[in-house]
Design a protein that fits this description.
Elements (H helix, E strand, L loop, with lengths): L11 H11 L3 H4 L2 H8 L20 E7 L2 H9 L2 H4 L3 H17 L3 E8 L20 E8 L6 H13 L6 H9 L2 H8 L6 E8 H4 L27 E8 L2 E9 L5 H23 L18 H15 L1
Parallel strand pairs: 2-4, 4-5
Antiparallel strand pairs: 1-6, 2-3, 5-6
Helix pairs in contact: 6-7, 6-11, 8-9
Amino acid sequence: EPTRFPAKTTSFRQWAERLAEHARTPEAEAEMEHWLAAAHAPAARLPVDFPGGENTEAHARAVVVSLPEEETHALVHEVPAAYRTQVADVLLAAFARAVGAWTGERAVRVELEGHGREPLFEDVDLSRTVGWFTSVFPVALDAGDDPSPGDALKAVKEQLRAVPGKGIGYGILRWLGRDEVRAALRAAPPPEVSFNYLGQMDALLPGAALFRPVDEPIGPAHAPTSPRRYLLEVDASIQGGRLTAGWRYAERVHRPATVEALAERWLAEVRALVEHCRAPEAAGYTPSDFPEAELSQDDLDDLIAHFIALND
């Protein structure tokens, strides 16, 4: 019997047309204040070893670091319970701390990637659509002024939860919005670094799956003469039970030792956050856990301390 598709299954073309219409609505443009604030947030420029060095695909190299299986298991299955976080929150909190130590500044502007299949419209179903729907958007991360691991994780968690619509609105406005909207976002300085957490690949492609990752090289994805968009690109995922991250850079901009040291510092920060969250005393809430209460972190901490005191 032929497969019967849902009546509301949408083609890519229909999806693009709906996005173009949505980009001009007051609902979409209400996000402008957030995106402009994120794009113009004060943050340090990344240090370079060779100022003015050629940043092209021909000179791209990569440093790869991995977390052992036992610590990766804890990252996925134990760590989230402490502060009601996701794996990406931990990786980005560690990233903010590592880059902050490198630049000497607390804040870093980073471009994040999402899957781009957010349910914007009730009558649109993308479940049977194949293609690249990636959403890319800027985020300003600030882990605080030398805070504890728990404080840094809670701060970054809240900054990520403040992103409207999981980031899909930025690209909609940047490429499909009114002329003045696109011009305002285009004028903002682009982040110098990107971070993409691809998730748990083992769960997506188990051993019995119809498809599996290829073992042989697939060839270059970009022409050698193409300029690279970022100074650093970090792609992290969990494969074979281990967290693995590739840090791409240009050898005419950064020395290998510089990127190796930064990647190892990030891995050490991940380990520190995992160790902290596994401790019995590690626990806490953040304002996004109670979205209707409209509390600041200080107000929430005071309220929790009050309840603890009453029960002692």
